[in-house]
Predict the structure.
Amino acid sequence: MKPRDRLRIAMQKSGRLTEPALELLKRCGLTFRQSRDKLFCFGEGEPVDLLLVRDDDIPGLIAQGVCELGIVGRNVLDEFRLTAGRESEPLAELRPLGFGRCRLSIAVPQEFDYSGPAQLAARRIATSYPGLLGAWLREHGVEAGVVTLAGSVEIAPKLGTADAICDLVQSGGTLVANQLREVDVLLESEAVLAGPQNMPADERGDLIALLLKRLDGVIQVRESRLLLLQTPRAALDAVTRLLPGGPQPTLLPVAGQPDQLMLQALCAGEVSWRQLEEIKKAGAREMFVLPVEKMLA
Ligand code: PRP
Ligand code: ZN
């Protein structure tokens, strides 16, 4: 493959990951000109183009060198790593991206009496993830029949072609609709940035490093919250002790109320209702939790 000076990122053409993935790339300063076939989008700001494909094809495209990076579910990436031939280029999970969370689980019909993996011995399990399921069964020393299906895995028990399934669960709605119940989790999944284990040694390697740096900044900001509150000076110690981790808070005087302080703190993650209620009990009031738009330390 001839070295290129532009980078290609593959992502799902249409599905649950499409919108959040585009939004993330936009936040990293990447914008694209929509082409008519919508399969290839030319990058405008940076020399980074987009390939819109089926999610299951993404790891293979990276391994073949058609593109350098991909945004894909960990389930798809790990399945490829387990089933790709030895000659295939090794792939790496470069960053977890924090959206598209779901899990790969074993589900059984309501009436199936499940007490552990051993219960699956000699049963037939339908899945689109034979690699991940096979590895899990081996790990538990269970010999079962793996029925590989490309889709509609959840109807296999009703059709009598399998006794259990191993499929993705997000809300659980699909399982309920098919009278199945989730009994074991094989893999916690989310969207990840996938790439080659060996970075290209040309300009594309530098571009990838630049993108990763921007991505880390975007992820950090996305998870940051600014907490604002007012507290009596007397309660300051108690309130400060309850603040979610982060740099030292900033204290400001409140005009006309010398016994009161305004406190401002950057928090590294979500601030829960429970935490707010605790802080309020310690004496704080007028509390605001704000998302952070940009950050430059
Ligand atoms: C997955 C999975 C289930 C469904 C589970 O399919 O195969 O059918 O989502 O989600 P739920 O728990 O919220 O009901 P998806 O729509 O992602 O399509 P794909 O697996 O064919 O890519
Ligand atoms: Zn899919």
